[in-house]
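Appendix B. One record, verbatim.
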Amino acid sequence: MNRQLYRTILLQTLYEWDVHNYSNTSLKDYLEYIVNSFQKVTIDEKELHELLENLESIASRRVILDELIEKASPGWTIDKITVVDRNILRLGIYELLFADNELIPPKVALNESIELAKKFGGAKSNKFVNGVMGAIYKEMGEPGKDQETKKKIPDVPYEEMPIDNKGAAVVYAVDDQGAVHLGMVHDVFGYWTLAKGTIDEGETLEEGTIREVKEETNWDIEIVQKIGENEYIAYHPERGPVRKNVTYFLGKAGFTQPTLEEGTGGLDDVRWFPLEEISELSMYEDVSQMIIQSIEIITAKEGLNE
């Protein structure tokens, strides 16, 4: 089955799911109904299973996907967007953020969404989908954005790429009973992650990280130690490929109520978690590794094994 037909089946099934009030338990029935409408096409059991897995994954992330759509289309609520357009966007954004970028590069997901809009949407659907998808693509940031431009990155030698330095912190605090809590921020992609930001010119990595954490969460941290580094390449629409150097620190703060900075765009929550709840959170791989390393340091520093 070619990719165009595959996406058409996904879109039409999502349409049925939408107009029937998002009945996730009926996704398989909707899929079989759509597949049976393509009488001249043979779809084997493996392809059918893969289609259903994708549909269930999209359906399980509907709240996150719809929040992203609304954030990227100011003035539009999800119910004001046509059924066809909002499901094209759900499918496209899902492929941008959660699909295997080796199989579906972000640029391909963007272009194919526009093609679906031209084929199934209204007169202005392709421009609307392009605008929403384009805005999200530009704001993707660290999660997967470096994978977008594998064909473009070789145009600029690695050593000639501009460098942006970023600081991130695993923040911890000890409450009045001596229990340790980790401070995390939640992004619109559905993950708990670390407070972080860009280091300004003239700042040290430590100074910039302290400032960014304060601005983002209102936590005043004291840097305990550096815990790691990471580099990835992101494609900026104007600057081209940019090397993003991230330095991770462990920082200690008072156990105070955090306040999420207004206008953060990519974040929607901030809170403390006791250590025993950390393993249950959805986190990026690099963040998870920094958390594990930090807990070992905190355990020794705070004498938790004594």
